[in-house]
Every structure is written in structure tokens, then in C-alpha cells.
């Protein structure tokens, strides 16, 4: 086996590769940019080489710098991770020329399957069913509209060299093609250095199902079953699971065998993924593309098969024969993965950049009879940069069946706490309890269908109201007793007895609290609830047993009261005397300011273009500017008809979240 390899990547995938290399006794080298100096990957690796400024185009995408780092350190091979140069055939060719082993497929396979257009032609030749579309390249917006009409709306406009949800738009009419085509072209150039675009039919009510394949250099190839990746937003996967709730054994076998046949057609010799769009109605499926690299969501496959895919990639690259036999591979249980992103779900999932003031993940290992695994490349104190993907971590859980895996995932999300930036965990946790998702009847339009107005949190159930009321009363009781002890009004062993009202949102609930040390009895109406916990002030997570059932609630002190969160529920809680509660009932509701005459930057980012001028009349929904953040271009639209009064920023300017960019009459 290799003695030393270089990892040409960053973040959680670099850490993931290091972990397997440590187990196999392989030394590791990581490269890093200015933004990643002092990162977890740099700390964990045996050696680290600085390769330039923070922008990927000046560091992680520069082949010369990667090759120089290999030469400096004497590494024998390069693992590209995912993204960056992982699917660049020129990089694989360059390494081969330099006699450096590429831990991935051969250059021919990358070239043939990495290009979305040629891969569809090859798939058709191999007998794999493909989606109707225009396989040739597209020159301009006018041609894109013409082709879209011929295919029939809706269509998917897609970067040929795309991946990771970048460079994709769905268009339902000519206008959306006219807007989407140049945006995809710009994203493709910025993210992949390749502006080739193709258009294909967008399958209504589709499901995204992908097959994991693994090959070696001796002609052997197997499939490690499927992953369901239908829960997507802006074509970026959010939740993944394995196996798929859609497939039966016959369909699974058919898809797997087609994936292997396609891989063998290009002598595929590493880990790869063949992606299909499948119909939830009749289980028919069509080839989408092949990702010639390790997928972000590979952990769910590892959890149900027990196979370390990184290890298999290393062994294949070294020239070993595949030690996996198709008839010996079995599905064990169910696995779910939540991608924890640095974004604000309450503001249409816009990027959130900043420092991780607190990063408290759930403990890995056993939870409620299942298993918790977390893949991450950050720690408390690290900076979430605007230069790279917004993913903070991948939280993976395994259970005996789908419901069990979902239950464990929900409980693990309850116990994962982040401060300093916004994260999408409230949304992920809310989905875990959502009826349609639980049924398995999902499509790639799930988020759009179930959250058409964006995510505004979920309404608490009766059980959640009780839980949050109890926790708020307990936390307030602990603070009240501590204050009494400090001032000398209470002895350290004296129990606290109070009658309060817990104001939770619009609900006013009288409670009777009797607080001991680490336990309490809270009476709500005629029912008494017991609560046992080891919580102490300062901890952001209140874990304990409510009436014998394990719970975890996130609590943050406010100027007045507390913010309490559980799953997708987020409420302000005030614990007070009946007299104060009555006073709050009499307060008028706060009026929201009118922002309809302003265009406010929804996120920190870079202004790509301003598409209107002072004095111009603008219609509701019309695009007025484009702001780029974390490699995604976001089209900002007018919320009402009006005339442009002032433009406060220009193309190339950096803007902060909530900065006023345009004003209307």
C-alpha cells in the first residue's frame, strides 16, 4: 500500500480521507489556502503545504501548485476528494504524465463520463435509458429558447461540466430560459472553468436515485446499491438516504446492473456514482449523469454495507483486485444523512458567513438503539468562509429500518448546537417529523411543494408545547434559585416553589414549580410532570428526561425571557408572575416596518450586476440585480411595482447582509 498520499482538497472530505489513511497506516499531506490555514485538516495531516490565496481559482484549482506540493513532500499519490479538480481529466492526465498515482478513475473514464453530453451518448449506446434532450452544445440564449420549445417545457438548463448543484436552472417558459441560460453559463465558468451548456427535458414528479459503483484495474466492478437524494433545494442535495424507499428488489437489480454495464464500458476503476431520475409512479428510470468521484453522500452507503469506500479507492489505485463480490453484498438496515449548511432557513436559506462561536455536535456512537456518525472539517472557533461551499458537516444516522433511522436522526439533530452563524438544522429536523416525508412519497420538488412560502418554522404540537413550557419553567427556576442563593435569600439546599405563568408565543400557561437539585415537578393544569436533568446555567442544550422520556431542547437567554427551540419549532418564552403576564397581554403588537420600497441584500456577497437604472419603472418580480455568494448567483427581484429612486451599489461591490442596495419612489 502507499506510504504517503496527498489530499488535493479541504474541509470535511480531507478529514474523512485522513481518517481512513490513519487506520491503514498511510501518511497524509494536505494542501491549504490562506482561508484554511490552521484548519482541522491541516492539524490532522502529517504534513501541510500552503498553495496560495483563498479563492479556489488561485489555489485548489491550480494544477502546478498541487504537483509541486507532491514533489516537495514525496507523496506517491493524490486523492482529489470531491469538487475542485476531482473530475478534471486534464488533472488526471497531468498526474499520469508526472508518474503520480491518481486515486480515482482513469483519465479516459473521467473524460467520457464526466462530460454530461458525451456520457449520455455513451449511456444510450450501452443500452441505458436516457432523458430526452439536446445533446449538442448551445451557442446563445436565442438558440437555448428555440431548443427548449422543441423539447417541451419544463426543461433543465445544465452546465456540461457541472456538479454539486452548481450550474443548473429549471425553466418553465421562454422568460425563465432567457434569465436562466446566462446565469448558468456564468456559474459554469466561475465554478468549473467550462461554459458549455446543454438542455434536457425535466421529468415531472421525479425522484433522484443514484447507484454507487466500485471498480478495479482488473476489469471487476460491483454496485453497492442505491441512495435516494430527492430532497433538494436549488438542485443541491439536503437529505440523502440508503436504500431508497421507492425501489423494489427487481428495480434495484436492474438499475445496479445498468450502472455496472455503463462503468465497464469505460473501464471504470474506482468509486463512482451513476445518477438516475426515477418516476415515483411506475419506477421507470432514466440516466442523468455519472459522477467520476467520491460523492458527498457516500457515508449512507458505507453505513448500510459496512464498506469503507475511501479504502476501496486507495486499494484500487494501488492496483489491488477488488475484494467485493456482488452476491456477497447485502443491505443492512437504513441510513439517513443531513447536510448541515451555513445558511438561514428562515430567510429562504440564504448563506450565513461568520465564526463558529460554538460548535457542539452530538456524540458519535449509539443513540436510541441506532448509530450516529458525523463527518466534518470544522471546530469551534473556525471561520465559515464565503469562498467555498457552505456545508459545515454531514450528520449520518443508522437504524434497523427507515423509521428508526429517521427517529435517531431527529434526536441527533436535537443535540447538535451551533452559534455564531445560522444553520439549516431546524429545517432538517422539521422534515424528519413531516408526514409526507415519513411516508416515503417524495420527489425532487418536495421542498417547493411542502414549503411554498419558504421555511418559517413549524407549529408546536401539544406535546412540544408541554415540553417547552416545562423546560422554560425549569431553566427560569434554576436562575431564580441561584440569584436567591447569591443574595442570601435562599439556602443552597432549600427547594424552590413558585407559581408562574409561562408565556410561550401566544399561549399563557399557569404552572406550579417545585425545584430540587437536578429534578423538578411542574404542574400544568391538573397534571404533574417530572423532569430530571444535569443541566447547569451556561449550557445551550437542556437534555433530560420528561416523564421518563429523553428530550433535548435548545435554550438561549434573551434580554427578557428565553428563546426555546425543538425540531422546527422556535418560540420566545417568558416566565413571569400572573400580574406581569396580564400586563403583557395588554401590550399592543409591534408593527413591522414597510420595506417594500427597498431592495435589501439578503446575504453578504459580491454584486455581479445591476440590471436597472435610476428613473426606470420596474414591475413586481422583475430582476433588478444579481448577488453572488458561496459560488451561487442569486437573482434579486422587485417585490412591488415602482420607479428606481436610487442605486447605492455597483457591479463588483461587496455587500453585507441587510445592506440597502436600491430604493424606489
Condensed summary:
This protein is α+β, with helices and mostly antiparallel strands and 665 residues long.
Task: Sum up the structure in keywords.
alpha+beta; Rossmann fold; globular; Dna Ligase, domain 1; 665 residues; 17 helices; nine-stranded antiparallel sheet; eight-stranded antiparallel barrel; D-amino Acid Aminotransferase, Chain A, domain 1; 40 strands; 5 domains
List the helices and strands and how they pair.
Blueprint: E1 4-7, H1 11-24, E2 27-33, H2 40-44, E3 47-52, H3 63-73, E4 77-79, H4 89-97, E5 101-102, H5 107-114, H6 116-125, E6 133-134, H7 141-151, E7 155-163, E8 166-171, H8 174-192, E9 197-201, E10 206-215, E11 221-233, E12 236-242, H9 249-265, E13 271-279, E14 285-291, H10 298-305, H11 309-318, E15 334-341, E16 343-344, E17 350-351, E18 354-355, E19 358-360, E20 365-367, E21 370-376, E22 383-384, E23 391-399, H12 402-414, E24 417-419, H13 425-433, H14 435-439, H15 446-450, H16 462-487, E25 496-504, E26 507-515, E27 519-524, E28 527-533, E29 541-546, E30 549-557, E31 562-566, E32 569-576, H17 578-586, E33 598-600, E34 605-610, E35 617-618, E36 623-629, E37 632-637, E38 642-647, E39 654-655, E40 660-664
Parallel strand pairs: 1-2, 1-4, 2-3, 4-5
Antiparallel strand pairs: 6-9, 7-8, 7-9, 10-11, 10-13, 11-12, 12-15, 13-14, 15-23, 16-17, 18-22, 19-24, 20-21, 21-23, 25-26, 25-32, 26-27, 27-28, 28-29, 29-30, 30-31, 31-32, 33-40, 34-36, 34-39, 35-38, 36-37, 38-40
